[in-house]
Amino acid sequence: MIRRAATLLVLACVAALPVAAGPVRIKDLVEFEGVRSNDLVGYGLVVGLNGTGDGLRNAPFTEEIMSSVLERLGVNVTGEQFRPKNVAAVLVTASLPPFARAGSPIDVTISAIGDSKSLLGGTLVMTPLKAADGDIYAVAQGTIIAGGVSAQGASSSVTQGVPTAGVVPSGAIVEREVAFDLSSLGTVRLALRNPDFTTAGRIEAAINADFRRPVARMLDSGTVELTLSATGMTSPAHVLGRIENLMIEPETRATVVVDQRSGTIVMGADVRISRVAVSQGNLTLKVDDHPLVVQPNPFSQGQTVVVPRSRASITENPGTGMAEVGDGASLSEVVQGLNALGVSPRDMIDILKSIKAAGALHADFVVR
Predict the structure, then answer these.
(1) Neighbours of 40 (CB within 10 A)
(2) How far is CA 307 from CA 287, 289, 290, 292, 304, in A?
């Protein structure tokens, strides 16, 4: 019997045991309305590269931004022809965290957009970072820490990681704050990351039990509304800090996730299968070619001829017949029933697809 499939799903089998999933903090299950980050992006220039910059013939936009930078510094390069190899055009991205104040440092990510071979050792020139509204919220500058290395010789080259991308830790300074006043809110909505009516109801019950009054109300499977004025606390920040550490036990939908590229199968503990019989077998087709060379007799006028000789055979691997999984079987019983057939993980994926198509697999089936 092939044990690979059993090994693959050992962790999933443990999850199928009748053990509670355990309580989780509300802060790990929801997002608070208004408490969010904002994406920033900018177009900049990296200098100081060791001959690994953009080829200006293939990346004319690098020459344009370099000319613009020099002109802002008082250097007139209009009509000049220059072909430096130590500069590269890059896109700079960052995430402005919630409640970030002016002067706070944030990390930035640098990615080459031209044909630069490496950003290792480069320095990002001062680059403004804009949000979706077009306003500048931060300015980035600093030495890049590249995520890889590249070396090239006369006839060979080697690259490890991705040297055309890197980061500048604390490389941007916040210049403008996002206008959001938490203290002025009368209500705050809690958005569940995985919408579920049962989980939302438990969040509502836990908050009301903690305040001993009805301050939370479930609106739908993904939203719980919190009335701040009914909590008796004057600071909304204190209210959110109090409820985010409350513990509840979340509910999840039964899901089976398969990855066909790696043969990985992950099943949730709530997966159930109706009564179904499964039979699995493999056909092996084998074709062997043994050509025969026929030589003419000595001093004859004949020619050498190659006579093709092929042998084909089909072999069916013996199986264990039909394996039956009982009605309402749990995950552990499903795994035992499939392993009884001695199937490989990739064959098990095909079997699960067929069970789902037959309507016997009661779970969301996700294929990646």
Answers:
(1) 23
(2) 16, 11, 9, 5, 10
Beta bridge partners of 276: 325
Helix axes 197-211, 236-243, angle to 10 degrees: 120
pTM here is: 0.68
The answer to whether 166 and 144 have CB atoms below 8 angstroms apart is: yes
Which amino acid does the sequence have at 4?
A: R
Q: Identify the bridge partners of residue 292 per DSSP, sorted by sequence position.
A: 307
Q: Which residues contact 314 (CB under 8 A, 6 or more apart)?
A: 283, 284, 285, 286
Rounded Cα distance between 83 and 349, Å, is 55
Cβ atoms within 10 A of the Cβ of 330, count? 18
The answer to whether 23 and 362 are in contact (CB under 8 A) is no
Provide the token pair at 312: 């084909």
What is the dihedral angle through the alpha carbons of 157, 161, 167, 169, rounded to the nearest 10 degrees?
Answer: -120
- CA torsion angle 316 321 326 332 (round to 10): -60
pLDDT tens figures, 135-183: 999 999 999 998 766 666 655 566 667 888 999 999 999 999 988 888 8
Q: List residues bridging with 315 in a β-sheet.
A: 284
pLDDT tens for residues 110-128?
999 888 888 888 999 999 9
Q: How many CB atoms lie within 10 A of CB 8?
A: 17
**Would you place residue 295 in the very low, low, confident or very high pLDDT band (cuts 50, 70, 90)?**
confident
Tell me if residue 360 falls in helix, strand or coil: coil
Question: pLDDT confidence of 282, banded at 50, 70, 90?
Answer: low
Contact 185, 229 (CB under 8 A): no
